[in-house]
UniProtKB/TrEMBL annotation:
Natural source organism: Coptis chinensis
Domain Transposase MuDR plant: 2-56
The protein's name in its UniProt record: Transposase MuDR plant domain-containing protein
Pfam families: DBD_Tnp_Mut
Length: 208
């Protein structure tokens, strides 16, 4: 058996272990070969993959299929991480990103592999992997604030659009204020002169 890259070989090994309900340990993270042993003590299962000379292709060199250990009855496997979840469910999470919650990811992974996934791994896969790829990361979004202000003023003349930065703290963004012209005019001409204040809290990567 062969794989075109070491990354694909690692993904294959991870999925093989998860489907067959066991975990492996790797003595070293090497760029030219992969050696893996069953994590259970005294279990003889092992495998070795190695790059072909002057190529990126990985080839299976050795495998011992005998297992003397038993699968986890609680259906846990530490090899199921956020990266594996994304590889398996990225299209589904992307398509239904508004309604597909971490709890749904947990249910889908149990349905697909009969394996328990922690809520944190499911949340991390959705928020920090798929949604950041779909909507850009938080840092990239903050860097677009000047362009947002510019577009608001171009499309809604006479609106209010301002932002500020803390120049003494690495040019860090501090606040943003947007009030569209239509909303301002409607408030002045049609609404009672009462201003209400409410709190809006940021609960993601950058709180506030």
């Amino acid at each position: 058996m062969e794989w075109p890259t070491i990354q694909e070989c690692r993904r294959y090994l991870t999925k093989y272990c998860i489907i067959n309900k066991f975990e492996v340990r790797k003595p070293k993270n090497e760029g030219y070969r992969i050696r893996a042993y069953c994590k259970a003590e005294e279990c003889p299962w092992m495998t070795c993959f190695r790059k072909k000379p002057k190529e990126f292709t990985m080839k299976l060199r050795k495998i011992v299929l005998e297992h003397t250990c038993y699968a986890d009855p609680l259906e846990h496997n530490c090899m199921v991480d956020a990266n594996f979840i994304v590889e398996e469910l990225e299209d589904q999470i992307t398509l239904h990103h508004k309604t597909f919650k971490p709890s749904d990811i947990q249910k889908q992974m149990f349905y697909n592999f009969h394996i328990e996934v922690s809520y944190w791994s499911a949340w991390h896969a959705r928020a920090n992997k798929v949604l950041e790829k779909l909507f850009r990361d938080y840092d990239g979004s903050y860097r677009m604030i000047p362009e947002l202000r510019k577009q608001v003023l171009l499309s809604n003349p006479s609106s209010i659009a301002t932002y500020s930065r803390d120049m003494e703290n690495g040019n860090q963004f501090t606040r943003l204020c947007i009030a569209l012209k239509g909303s301002l005019t409607g408030f002045v001409t049609r609404c009672r002169p009462i201003v209400g204040l409410d709190g809006c809290f940021l609960k993601r990567k950058y709180g506030g």
